[in-house]
Amino acid sequence: MTTISSFRRMDESTAEQWAAIGAETAHNQPRVADTVLAMLGGLAAITDGFAVDQLTHCLQSATRAEADGADPEMVVASLCHDIGKFVSVPNHPRIAAEILRPYVRDEVVQVIATHQHFQGRHYYHHFGADPNLRDRYRGQPWYALAEQFADDWDQTSFDPGYPTEALEHFEPLVRQVFARPRSAL
Fold first, then answer.
1. CB contact at 8 A, 148 and 108
2. 15 in a domain, yes or no?
3. Is residue 11 part of a domain?
4. 150-166 in b/e burial notation, b at 16+ Cβ within 10 A?
5. What is the CATH number of the domain that holds 62?
6. Over the stretch 88-102, which tens digit does the pLDDT of each residue have?
7. Alpha-carbon distance 36 to 100, whole Å?
8. How many helices (H) and strands (E) does the chain have?
């Protein structure tokens, strides 16, 4: 880590200092993919009663998305859709969506942010919850993609016998998507 700035408050900073900080940040951008890959690896320790660990589940979802011809952003989002469980299971869709937000188009962010409501069609009735929560999003331009993700790639990916690609298979795609933010916000 290089210290390149001497300001102690942002309102005392200069344009030159921010130019140096921007250059350093751009130089270190690969650490984002490194961190995402490490978090995904950490999902291997989370099973929570499922037939496969959460890393395997994410790998299966991404494998299915890739096999169905999803674009790189959607494949990586499928891989990362449950990455929030590394931090908080109840809020995992929002956490994953916010990690992805600067790097993928908005419709992909929306699919991941709402995937629990879409997936709920397959199990919410077991808890007495409304299995049709996805209907609140009907009419959104990303609705069909969210249905495909939930119904074809996510809820089907708890199969210990499914031929699943390894994390290393997806690493180049993760590095490509996280190489440069599409937006800063």
1. no
2. no
3. no
4. beebbbebeeeeeebee
5. 1.10.3210.10
6. 999 999 999 999 999
7. 10
8. 8, 0
